[in-house]
């Protein structure tokens, strides 16, 4: 830039000199020199302009490359952020599914325990249920039970008999699932005169020889299956309600 300014100054001086009044003889001598000097200066100016233009172009190009690099880096950062969020959401979803699976498994075990045929409740069980507290241990309850008279134990035995009767009554009301196609085929083709093993083998071979349509004809009626599902649902709710009392 300084070189361009210097060249402009020289050009200005040359123009000033050409405007001064001189005699014809001096003009014939000075003008060629001034013309030569002006041409050189103009050539230098043109060169300087080209140099500045190239430098500006390179600088602009460099800025463009830097801008592109920044934009590319920004895009990569955004992609990495989105990927991290997706991974986080995926882990959270997997964790939630695992939690739900554990809860369902726990609930299934609880239901299995509730729906299991109830065990026998003794008079001692009813006594501990009535008398045991957080401060009492089973040993203390046993000691208290052992000092009770037979007449005092009768009341607890009556309570136990009542509970056992109620529980068994609810359990005995459990609806029976209609037999499937093979079970019905087995009942129909069972030969009492043959041994159990031979019976089973012969019936199995007969069943395997049936076509898909023939096997389907032995399946229970859809209305029976639907009625069983409804009854089973009602019975399950009844057992759970009695268990929570």
UniProtKB/TrEMBL annotation:
Stretches the record annotates as Disordered: 54-74
Keyword set, alphabetical order: DNA-binding, Nucleus
Residues in HMG box domain copies: 175-236
CDD domains per the UniProt record, alphabetical: HMG-box_SF
Basic and acidic residues composition-biased segments: 65-74
UniProt key word Cell division: no
Residues annotated to bind DNA: 175-236
The protein, known as: HMG box domain-containing protein
């Amino acid at each position: 830039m300084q070189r361009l300014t210097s060249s402009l100054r020289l050009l200005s001086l040359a123009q000033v000199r050409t405007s001064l009044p001189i005699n014809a003889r001096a003009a014939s001598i000075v003008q060629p020199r001034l013309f030569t000097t002006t041409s050189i200066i103009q050539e230098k100016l043109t060169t300087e302009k080209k140099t500045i233009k190239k430098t500006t172009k390179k600088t602009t190009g460099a800025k463009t490359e830097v801008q592109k690099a920044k934009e590319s880096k920004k895009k990569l950062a955004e992609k990495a952020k989105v990927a991290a969020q997706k991974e986080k959401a995926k882990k959270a979803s997997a964790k939630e599914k695992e939690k739900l699976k554990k809860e369902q498994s726990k609930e299934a075990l609880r239901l299995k325990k509730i729906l299991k045929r109830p065990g026998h409740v003794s008079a001692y069980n009813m006594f501990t249920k009535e008398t045991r507290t957080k401060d009492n241990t089973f040993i203390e309850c046993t000691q208290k039970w052992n000092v009770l008279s037979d007449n005092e134990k009768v009341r607890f035995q009556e309570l136990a008999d009542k509970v056992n009767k109620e529980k068994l009554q609810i359990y005995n009301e459990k609806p029976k699932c209609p037999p499937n196609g093979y079970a019905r085929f087995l009942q129909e083709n069972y030969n009492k005169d043959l041994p159990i093993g031979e019976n089973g083998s012969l019936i199995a071979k007969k069943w395997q020889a049936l076509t898909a349509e023939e096997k389907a004809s032995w399946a229970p009626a859809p209305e029976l299956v639907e009625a069983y599902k409804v009854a089973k649902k009602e019975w399950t709710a009844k057992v759970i309600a009695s268990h929570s009392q």
